[in-house]
Specification:
This protein is of the alpha+beta class and 341 residues long. The chain contains seven helices and 15 strands. Strand 9 and strand 10 form a beta hairpin. It is globular, with a radius of gyration of 20 Å. Bound molecules: 2,5-anhydro-1,6-di-O-phosphono-D-glucitol (AHG) and manganese (II) ion (MN) (2 copies).
Length: 341
């Protein structure tokens, strides 16, 4: 099918993928289309955030004890409302909700479980920096009945799709269904996401590292030595690396996906309530790990492949090292055998 000069829309791309995947029903395509509608609604709210009362906090806290921003709540509600009645969902799990969100009995259900970080980078909402939405789609284990936690607390390697929207200078959708990673840019005039980055591959090694250096004295010694090694003068190894940190995982991840590099959120001793770091396994690390591996990169907790980790609870946190494969394996050498650069 030619793209008639308009550019290939995400719907056309999905239908093409669907034709090439015998078992794929239209369900996934419909589900992703509803997520796209939700993202357009969130994008509209984000782009006028300074003008309407969507800034600031709701005054309540989420399960992590973090203040829920109004846009967090708006994004969460918008996504749930769009997908809950599609008939393709068995349940939703959200970073913003303590428990599994069941499909009301008046709606039909389907085989998919949707997991969302509805708004990633909340601390950046009020300062007009990149923010995003992360989603992960899994197939339920049981045929029917209410979804139980054991159907969700499973390895990330079982995800059937993962993606993110990034709201910034342009709004993009990046997703994978296990057949490569594709990027679509929203053409606001048309209201269509058009294929802009076909089959994204992350460079084997980058020259960018992304980490909150403010936590330096709370990291373990090997992490400090690894980050210090990136600052050494070693032109043969492209060092010193450049430091780039937005403070929005989706923004830092997306830049490194395109340019190469490593993003780190190590376990730190700063907050005893977060011994495993800040990022969530099911809602942030696992979906981005599927994407980065599909793009030829790697994602680890420093010792294990993220996609091999089985969660213990819905809101498990995990240290995250993700990006170019050679950078992640160099980091692992520092952690596992006191390796040097
Ligand atoms: P969220 O807004 O969904 O809670 O995610 C925020 C996360 C992630 O986006 C980012 O990488 C990290 O918080 C930044 O944390 P620090 O401010 O501690 O560096
Ligand atoms: Mn997040
Ligand atoms: Mn969030």
């Amino acid at each position: 099918m030619t793209d008639r000069g308009l550019g290939i829309t995400v719907t056309e791309h999905l239908l093409r993928e669907q034709r090439e995947t015998p078992y794929a029903t239209g369900a996934f395509t419909q589900l992703l289309n509803e997520l796209i509608v939700a993202a357009k609604i969130i994008h509209r709210q984000v782009s006028k955030a300074g003008l309407v009362d969507i800034f600031g906090s709701t005054g309540s806290e989420n399960v992590y004890g973090e203040e829920i921003q109004k846009l967090d709540e708006f994004a969460n509600r918008t996504i749930i409302r769009r997908v809950i009645h599609t008939g393709h969902i068995a349940a939703i799990a959200s970073e913003e909700d303590a428990d599994i969100i069941e499909v009301p009995h008046q709606y039909p259900t389907g085989p998919y479980i949707l997991l969302i970080d509805p708004l990633d980078g909340s601390s950046n909402i009020d300062v007009n920096a990149n923010i995003g939405t992360i989603f992960s789609i899994r197939r339920r284990i049981k045929e029917s009945g209410p979804v139980t936690l054991d159907e969700i607390l499973r390895k990330g390697s079982e995800q059937i799709a993962a993606g993110y929207f990034i709201y910034g200078s342009s709004t993009m959708l990046v997703y994978t269904t296990g057949k490569g990673v594709h990027g679509f840019t929203l053409n606001p005039a048309l209201g269509e996401f058009l294929l802009s980055h076909r089959n994204i591959k992350i460079p084997k090694r980058g020259k960018i590292y992304s980490v909150n250096e403010g936590n330096y004295y709370y990291w373990s010694e090997p992490i400090r030595r690894y980050v210090d090694s990136l600052k050494e003068k070693d032109p043969a190894k492209g060092k010193p690396y450049t430091s780039r940190y937005i403070g929005t995982l989706v923004g830092d991840f997306h830049r490194n996906l395109l340019k190469g590099g490593i993003f780190m959120y190590p376990a730190d001793t700063k907050d005893p309530k977060k011994p495993r770091g800040k990022l969530r396994l099911l809602f942030e690390a696992a979906p981005l790990a599927m994407i980065v591996e599909q793009a030829g990169g790697a994602a680890s907790d420093g010792h294990r492949r993220i996609l091999d980790i089985e969660p213990e609870t819905l809101h498990d946190r995990v240290p995250l090292f993700i990006g170019s494969s050679e950078d992640v394996s160099e980091l692992e050498r520092f952690l596992n055998d006191g390796g040097s650069s």
